[in-house]
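Lecture notes, unit on protein representations.

Consider one protein chain, 476 amino acids long.
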Amino acid sequence: MVRSLVVFLLTASAFAPSLAACSCGPGAEAPACSRVGSRSVIFAGRVVFSNDDGSGRFDQGTLIRFTVEEAFQGLPEGTTEVWIDPSSYTSCYHNFPVGGRYLMFASGPLTQRPPSAATKSAWRDSLGRPKPMPPGFDADHPPLIYVTGGCSGSRSADRALSDLQWLREWRAGRTTTRLYGRILEHYSRFSSPFHEPPLAGVTVTAQGENGAYTATSNANGEYEITGIPAGRYAFSASLENYSFSWGTISIQVAPGGCAYLDAGLFTTGRIAGKALSSDGKPEAGLEVQVARLLADGKVRYDLSQSIVTGAQGEFEFKDLSSGDFLLGVNLTERPTPALPFATTYFPGTPNRDSAQLIRLNPSEQREGLILRLPARLQPRTVQVTVRWPGGSPASNVRVAVFLRNEGHSAGVEDLKYDATVSLPCLKGLEYQIRARAFIDDDPKQRNRRIADGEVSLPAGDDPAQLTIILDKPGVI
């Protein structure tokens, strides 16, 4: 049996298996008024049955039965129960526990009348074993099955009170067709807006076959156009010194419903300069970052930008929003042999509190900045040997190295049929090294046996010889 082993330098206390998450756009949390007309069925109900296997995994086929408490769209009159497939076998799988009350938005039906053999074989647990048919489910004459999931907008009834009230008003014909939302600076529309600042004074236009309708955003970036006819519109927005990169956005408004749209305007700020080494020479091939500060002073590292300096140490960041920015090296990571510098902020300080912020007005161009770097951190000779508890060396080992400080990665090394490997460490830094052996080495196999071990390396300059004992067995 071939054993493979992985060694990590990190601060996490345990390894946990993870599954790819469903990647939802902002529409997943959109209000109910924007969903009428776009979903096959909308109802409020309670879960009375689920054959979810409790594994927390999405690689299973599941059927969920709801009792219908209120029907709003798409269900025949008098419908008392609905079968739901919660996006089985996809990363958008979403379980609805028995007893829970939900406002459901579902599409479908999955199929009108599936062959019974296909129906029986479609529902398997996360280990591939067939699930028994649910009580009352006739596989030879199956009912309609609708589909929802983690990105379909279905939500707990407890946090959908305003949606439920609106749906009741809409069902009674007492709602007004409208278009509303927010205009934000440098918002891409592909994720829920968290920190993008609002833009006031933006003219929004909805162009339909009956004419154009306009509104102006307020200090919170909010806009609203009410009383428009139902139909399709081309949405656009404009403000001096900003551009609307989408041209127009097509939106559809159902009778009595709404279109909710958060949109972004973009500006063309620029930060440019040179990076100099500790002896004043241009630092070529250096990764430099900018990161925007939020209104509360926190740094928006997840939207930081990185570029590599040119032959003369030059760098240029273009198409930046307005606001305050940090400029520096290793703002979001820790030093590695490829980038052996301690975190450095413009103009050349290791301390965040003494960093000089770079403020940009809309479309402002800042040039001639000088970023001064500290001396490079030097490589440290570190070798690690990985052994089983009995003392024999582990073979076919893969090594991943992470800095102890906040668990940032500092490199990866493989032990290929050799239990000893040199690690890419730097002088003056502290590491924690963790090793993992995959006793069962088939990545498709479920419940693979593994063994972990770890050792700490204090900060220092001297060469080090370390041993890791694989004394923590487990299963992933």
